[in-house]
């Protein structure tokens, strides 16, 4: 049995599956995507994280959400146990240099459309958890969050979350969404500790903190030496250093959730074992 925690009213696994690498650029194709999602569901994972914007720029939109729908439709396990979270407010494009980017679009009327499109792509009447992906600086944050609230009020989403937020933005969202706000999804990992303030604030408020790119993500190069202590602890336990990283993040509090990504079954199956790893005082002294 995998480690379960309460994410708002949902009883789900503390380790979720971040779908993004399966459908953005450099993915390994549709069939590997389905195989990878089925592998994690079969292993007991009950939380999938996707987004309207998880597609390759210039190609079909919303392929991440569509892949999740297909994976669940073709899976023979208990689908109603699976928490599916998605996000609206970003799109994909290439910049002038041909680099893939994530343009922001937080206009309320667009968010209302994106939310309904997400529900359609996921094949549900009501999305379990819908996040505002990232603040669009051209739109006052409260206006975007009012649109998210409208989507909840209309039953397009059951609960709301916010992502990539500061404490100030989180307070704006709390003021508008009240107890419909259940989760904050911010980047957090040994190479990105800047969000410690929101992590602590969520613990105080009783909100779930969902770490994105918990293993450092795909934005190499970063300072690999930050993972050295995790490699040492991993060698002692005979596990991958990625499992140690995830176990260390989950130990930050009962409100912590991690959503590692993967391009293939092997890596997500390894990551899902992190909930069983028991780190001791000596390990924590080394890891901080
Ligand atoms: N809210 C936001 O703005 C935001 C932004 C970024 C990401 N996210 C979410 O966070 C999720 C995770 O982020 P991410 O995919 O960028 O990064 P990540 O989880 O930090 O890292 C994924 C990479 O780690 C490797 N990996 C995973 N588990 C491993 C293991 N046990 N052993 C060895 N390698 C392992 C994968 O390798 P392989 O490639 O070999 O499988 C993959 O390349 C995304 O899928 C998405 O759902 C949200």
UniProtKB/TrEMBL annotation:
It comes from the Bacteria. One of its GO terms (cellular component) is cytoplasm. Residues 31-287 form the NADP-dependent oxidoreductase domain. One of its GO terms (molecular function) is oxidoreductase activity. Pfam families: Aldo_ket_red. The keyword Oxidoreductase applies. The keyword Cell membrane does not apply. Keywords: Oxidoreductase. This is Aldo/keto reductase. It comes from Bifidobacterium ramosum.
